Amino acid sequence: MRENGHGGDIYRFAQENGCRVDEVIDLSSNINFIKPELDIDFNSIDTAPYPDYSALQSDIAALYGVDVSNIELFNGATSAIYALYRLLGLKHTTLYAPLYLEYQKAAKAHGYAIDHIHRFEDLYAEVRPRSLVVFVNPSTPDGSCYLLKELMERWREKECTVLIDESFLDFAAAGSALSHLKSCRRLYVLKSMTKFYAAAGIRIGALISSAENIEEIHRREPLWKLSRFDSLYLQSALRDSTFAQRSQSANEAHREYLVRMLEAHPAIEKVFPSCANFVMVKLRQMSAAAFQSKLTPYRIMVRDCSNFEFLDERYLRIAVKDMQALLRLKEALCEISI
To answer: Which spans are transmembrane here (predicted)?
Structure first.
């Protein structure tokens, strides 16, 4: 498994296994299988003018109950991560792991010393004062939701800068760290628009913080970071008033079906509770790579989690997808030898 490898590389999978991309059942990528209904004809878009983000910023501000002055847009959440590490210019970061691999990569790229806290075993471990603390909630790759009140108090006492990554919070019935914005002036909340709005190819992410923090970021960022297509796609998706309810309902039902399927399988030792659109499992004996090899003839991809901090080769993640994909997985699990 590559150190910084991610799920969703369907093109490589298809090429290596001699199949078409449309034959691949991608259970490795945690993109919503429910798509918003769009009300725009992209063939009619005038691409001559420079993009203007005021309408999009207003829509996102309304969605999350903040002011436009609290938002800085980025070409995807990953771009926001790299930008924040660069702009803060701190010397140390504390990563609550396992977590999205790009955090460690971004920290190394910008010369940060790194501490890892094993959130499964030592959630309340001491953090270094004035560190950049990163916490993903709901977490990846397991999908756990955490109550952050006590942790926030500890981080404030240590004068830490805090980044809470809420890329998957739209899937969960849980509270946002945005409620701490007024009491924690060093707090940044990261929102990804690609996961919930089923658009990994539409690169939109947002950092939300105090107006002062956002002004400092905005002053040091490029003027244009999103295309007109990106902006208009998300504005149209946000106008689908029933999308959020449909997505949350369908993902919850399909996740429960997936969990029951996995819990019944003899190769799986543990299915981790999740409130996101994916489930992490621990295998009894075989490795995730061996498990994947048994699914490959069925053109099914899962996410080997062996390159996450604190996880070994027996951990893998399976995304919640449409029922046709889950039934194909069930068929494969019934047929493969363990």
So the answer is: none
Please provide residue 118's backbone torsions phi and psi, each rounded to the nearest 5 degrees: -80, 100
Both 83 and 119 in one domain: the answer is yes
Q: Which domain holds residue 86?
A: 42-238
Q: Which amino acid type is present at position 97? A: A
Short-list 140, 89, 188, 179, CA closest to 309:
140
pTM: 0.95
The 10s digit of each residue's pLDDT in 172-210 is 988 999 999 999 999 999 999 889 999 888 899 999 999
Residues 75-105 have pLDDT tens digits of 999 999 999 999 999 999 999 999 999 999 9
Instruction: Summarize the confidence of residues 163-167 as an average pLDDT.
Output: 98
Residues 88 and 18 in one domain: no
Cβ atoms within 10 A of the Cβ of 41, count? 7
Q: Are residues 26 and 113 in the same domain?
A: no
Task: Give me the residue label for tokens 């999350």.
Answer: 64
Domain count for the chain: 2
Interatomic CA distance for residues 66 and 63, integer angstroms: 8
Average pLDDT over the chain, rounded to whole?
94
| Strand residue runs (E) in the chain | 25-26, 71-74, 92-97, 113-118, 132-136, 161-165, 187-192, 205-208, 268-271, 278-283, 300-301, 303-304, 315-319
Peptide bond into 51 cis (omega under 30): no
